[in-house]
Amino acid sequence: MKTPEIFRFDGTRPCRLDEIDPAGTGPFQNREEILKTFEENKAILAKEQEKLYAQKDYTLLVILQGLDAAGKDGVIRHVFSGLNPEGVKVWSFKQPSDEELKHDFLWRTHTHLPERGQVGIFNRSYYEEVLVVRVHDLLPTEHIPPNLITKHIWEKRYRDISQFEAYLRENGILPVKFFLHISKDEQKERLLARLEDPSKNWKFSTSDVKERAFWNKYQACYEETVNHTASAGAPWYIIPADKKWYARYLISHILVGIVRDLHLQYPETSPEQQKVLAAYRDLLEHGTGEHA
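Now predict its structure.
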């Protein structure tokens, strides 16, 4: 099997988005080449999720970032389709509510963190606080004292986010961060498809088109964000996203490697527990199946 090219950034080298082709598919030419492996990856993820849920030591927190129409919803729908819904929590970060704006910028993240043993999926995340908030100069809406809004506020937020992710890891919550890197031309085609197909009209938002005017600024903010918040414990993965089939396969490939490195196991039963189980086994095999 061919090995995909992985754009992993852990702070040891700079990220340059213009050096990563959004239409790249590594050594693969078409979807058929990786379809079988993609299905195998999904099966592995399902099996490892079962162990994660049973063990309840770690939490896998998958963070999906990307511009409009980058394919975040499709990744959730296809890559995680084989998981047990009981052990998955998906949360989409929309425009903050009045209540959320009254708290610190990480407050709403705390309220939606998944439980131990679960796979959490953030469709967008706390990273919006250094992306859309910065692009559209929304700090004045966050009730921050004016004297605290300085030219250094973004560096401070990068620091706070990095420390927050260190805190998560120290509590067994493992952030896995993906940026779906789509080209402007491909985004245009996907937005047009939403207009031309009646079954996709509901996906279209006028704000998606308006946001295209800020394309270059978003690219600069994403690049700076990656370079300031990538670390060995919480690296960023840049996913070429023009080809949906490749982006989904690549994310599944990366996740399989991560969960395998956890060496998850089903909980072991103690000698005392084994005696109890043996007694119930004997009751089921030879007894009436009812308690006296």
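The radius of gyration is 22 Å.
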